[in-house]
Amino acid sequence: MPLENRVDPYGRLLRTPARGTMMGNRGGAIHNEEREIVRRYASRRWIACVLEFRGRKRAVMSPGRYTELFFLDEAVALAAGHRPCAECRRERYEAFRRAWDALRPPRADEMDAALHAARIDRRGRKVTCEARLDSLPDGCFVELDGAAWLVRGEALALWTPEGYGRRIARPERRVTVLTPRPAVECLGAGYRPEIHRSLDGAGTGG
């Protein structure tokens, strides 16, 4: 059975054989010795990393080590509340900081505190907001008819664990925004997340 370590745009952890293109963690170990998820996060430092870095090798969900989580792409990681890692994705981390505040790029702790308040409430529920679709930048995730859709140009693309499915024209309406507000603002300021290649082949419908 697949491990419960794949993250969806709501920030939930899933079991799926589909593979992601990015790895990350939530500040430490959130699994037990049987490699079962026992809590949602270990600290406020939720990061998104590359799959391979400097030849480092490790067994997934080793006892006492941080829990490796996997995302379809960076847009999903941002929607779930993660930010670029300052070590393995240093260039992207600096770009994210500049998009956050070009005049005074924040420290990691500042971003983590703001993101934590914007992604999860005190009861552990995902924080969302409402906005008009035409006001949102590319790279955001929104909820439409109970599903997660990526905003891209004049269209929305349906998220699935395997990749992006069908596209529909971006409707003129208010929607629930899944991507935390600070990340939405970074996207609006020009930060461009890495998107899974399946988006280029997503079909049109609706």
Structure description:
The chain has 4 helices and 12 strands. The protein is an alpha+beta fold and 206 residues long. The chain has one domain (4-201). Strands 7-12-8-9-10-11 form a 6-stranded antiparallel sheet. Strands 5-3-4-6 form a 4-stranded mixed sheet. A two-stranded antiparallel sheet has the order 1-2. A hairpin with a 5-residue loop joins strand 1 and strand 2 (13-15). The longest helix has 12 residues, at 108-119.
What labels describe this entry?
alpha+beta, 206 residues, four-stranded mixed beta sheet, 25% strand
Could you tell me how far the N terminus lies from the C terminus, measured between alpha carbons in angstroms? 35 Å
Structural class: alpha+beta
The count of β-strands is 12
Trace the largest sheet across and list its strands: 7-12-8-9-10-11
Content of β-strand: 25-35%
Backbone CA Rg:
16 Å
**How many separate helices?**
4
Instruction: Catalogue the unreliable spans.
Output: none
Summarize the structure.
With 206 residues, the chain is α+β, with helices and mostly antiparallel strands.
